[in-house]
Design goal:
The chain is of the alpha/beta class. The protein has helices at about 5-10, 20-30, 35-45, 45-60, 105-115, 135-145, 160-170, 170-180, 195-205, 210-220, 240-255, 280-295, 305-310, 310-315, 350-360, 385-390, and strands at about 65-70, 70-75, 120-125, 150-155, 185, 225-235, 260-265, 300, 325, 365, 375. Helix 5 (about 105-115) packs parallel to helix 6 (about 135-145), helix 6 (about 135-145) runs parallel beside helix 8 and helix 10 runs parallel beside helix 11.
Length: about 400
C-alpha cells in the first residue's frame, strides 16, 4: 500500500495554505468540515494531501482491516422505461434484441445455482418495467427466503421502488413496509446519481428526484433497516454538485444513522449518450474517494467497487480512505461491463480477493452485509497455497 504522510508531518509544512491547514487540523481533531471546505478540497487539495487526511480517518477507524463479502448479483432485466443519458445498460430503445427479461422461475434458478456455496448475500437490481411490480417482488423475496432463509436479500433502488409504489397507488411508507414483510433485508445505494436538480434533470430526467430518493431511504431507516448510498461522478457535474450530494447524505445520516457504506461510482463513457465526455483520471478517482471519506464523517465505511475501477485502482484506493472493496460478485453482473468498466468478467474467487488485499499490506476481513465478521483471513493459508508450500494450515476464524 502507498504510504501517505502523517497529518502531523503535513502540519509541519510552513508553506501549507492556512485554509488547507485548518482542514487538516479539523481532521486531526475529529471535527467536521464545512461545505465550503469540501469544495476547497476539490479545488485545491492535491492528491497526497487529501490522501493523507483520508488515510488517517480510515486507519483511526479500521486500522488496516479491509472488508469484503461473498455475494452474487441478479439483474432481472436490462430493459428500462427510463432513458438516462449516462446509461449503457438499457436496451429499450436500441439493441432491443440484446435485452433480457427474466421470469420469476428464471431468477430463482439463479439463486438455486448457489445452493451449497458459502455466499451470504444476493444483490438484486435492474431496469424498470411494468411487469416487475409490487406483487412480483413481494413474491420473489418470499420465495428466496423460503428457499434459503439465511441469505441476505439486498434489493432494488428508490428508482424502482418509486415506480412500483406509484403504479400500485400506495405510499412509500406502505410500500417499504410490504417489502420488509416480504423478506427484504437491506437496500443498495444505486439510483442516487447526482441529487442536485441542475444535473439530475439533465442526466436522469423522469426518475425519482433526489428528495424522493432520500425520503425512501429515510423511511427504510425508520423501519430499523440499513442501506447504502452512492454518487455517480465524473461527467457534467461541478465540484459544488458533488459536495451538495455528500451534504444531503450527511444530513440524512445525522437524522437516521441508517446508512452503512458510501460507494462513489465512476462514470464510464462506453455506448451511451454521454460518450463524448472524457472519463475521470485515476488521480481524480482517488481524490474523490479521499474527499468523500473526509466529508462523510458519520459514515462508517467507504467502498470501492472493484469491477468498475479495476483491481489495481481498487488496491490504490485502500490508501485513500477506502476500507471495503465489495465482494466476489460473480459474473452475473452486466451493468458496468456494458459501460466499459475495467473488469469485463467481474468475478473473483475468495482466494483472489484475499490476495489482492494482502498485496497492499491490508488485512482481509470477510463480512456479512451488516458488517458482522464472518472470517478473518489475515493469517489464513488457502489449501492450494499450502499444498504448493508443502504444508497444511487451518484458517484463522474471527481473529482466533
Amino acid at each position: 500500500m502507498q504510504t501517505n504522510r502523517p497529518i502531523t508531518v503535513i502540519l509541519e509544512d510552513k508553506t501549507l495554505d492556512r485554509p488547507l491547514r485548518t482542514i487538516a487540523e479539523k481532521v486531526l481533531d475529529g471535527k467536521r468540515i464545512t461545505e465550503e471546505e469540501g469544495i476547497l478540497l476539490f479545488e485545491r487539495g492535491e492528491l497526497a494531501f487529501v490522501g493523507a487526511l483520508a488515510n488517517h480517518i480510515r486507519e483511526t477507524r479500521h486500522g488496516k482491516r479491509t472488508y469484503f463479502n461473498r455475494n452474487f448479483h441478479i439483474e432481472p432485466t436490462n430493459v428500462c422505461l427510463y432513458t438516462c443519458t449516462f446509461c449503457s445498460y438499457s436496451r429499450l430503445i436500441k439493441k432491443r434484441e440484446e435485452g433480457w427479461e427474466y421470469s420469476m422461475d428464471e431468477i430463482l434458478d439463479i439463486v438455486r445455482k448457489y445452493d451449497g456455496e458459502p455466499v451470504t448475500e444476493v444483490h438484486i437490481v435492474g431496469g424498470v418495467l411494468p411487469q416487475y411490480d409490487v406483487e412480483f417482488y413481494s413474491e420473489l423475496f418470499r420465495r428466496i427466503k423460503a428457499h434459503r432463509p439465511e441469505l441476505h436479500v439486498k434489493a432494488l433502488t428508490p428508482v424502482e421502488y418509486h415506480y412500483i409504489f406509484k403504479k400500485a397507488k400506495i405510499s412509500y411508507e406502505e410500500g417499504m413496509r410490504l417489502m420488509k414483510e416480504a423478506g427484504l433485508d437491506s437496500m443498495p445505494g444505486g439510483g442516487a446519481e447526482i441529487f442536485h436538480p441542475e444535473i439530475r434533470d439533465q442526466i436522469a430526467g423522469g426518475k425519482c428526484s433526489g428528495e424522493q430518493w432520500l425520503r425512501i431511504h429515510e423511511i427504510w431507516h425508520e423501519l430499523g433497516c440499513r442501506s447504502n448510498a452512492t454518487m455517480l461522478y465524473g461527467h457534467i457535474e461541478a465540484y459544488r454538485h458533488r459536495i451538495h450530494h455528500l451534504e444531503e447524505l450527511r444530513k440524512l445520516q445525522d437524522k437516521t444513522g441508517g446508512f452503512q457504506t458510501f460507494i462513489p461510482l465512476k462514470f464510464r463513457n462506453k455506448d451511451n449518450q454521454m460518450s463524448h465526455l472524457p472519463e475521470s483520471t485515476v488521480v481524480e478517482d482517488l481524490r474523490n474517494y479521499a474527499i468523500s471519506r473526509i466529508y462523510l464523517d458519520n459514515f462508517d465505511h467507504i467502498k470501492a467497487y472493484w469491477p468498475m475501477i479495476g483491481r489495481n485502482v481498487a488496491q490504490l484506493s485502500l490508501a485513500f480512505g477506502v476500507d471495503d472493496i465489495d465482494g466476489t460478485i460473480d459474473d452475473t453482473t452486466k451493468i458496468y461491463s456494458m459501460a466499459g468498466s475495467e473488469e469485463q468478467n467481474p468475478a473473483m474467487s475468495t482466494r483472489d480477493l484475499v490476495n489482492l488485499i494482502r498485496q497492499v499490506g491490508c488485512q482481509p476481513i470477510e463480512r456479512d452485509t451488516l458488517y458482522n465478521v464472518v472470517e478473518d483471513y489475515t493469517d489464513h493459508v488457502f489449501e492450494e497455497d499450502a499444498e504448493f508450500k508443502g504444508y497444511v494450515s487451518l484458517p484463522v476464524v474471527n481473529g482466533k
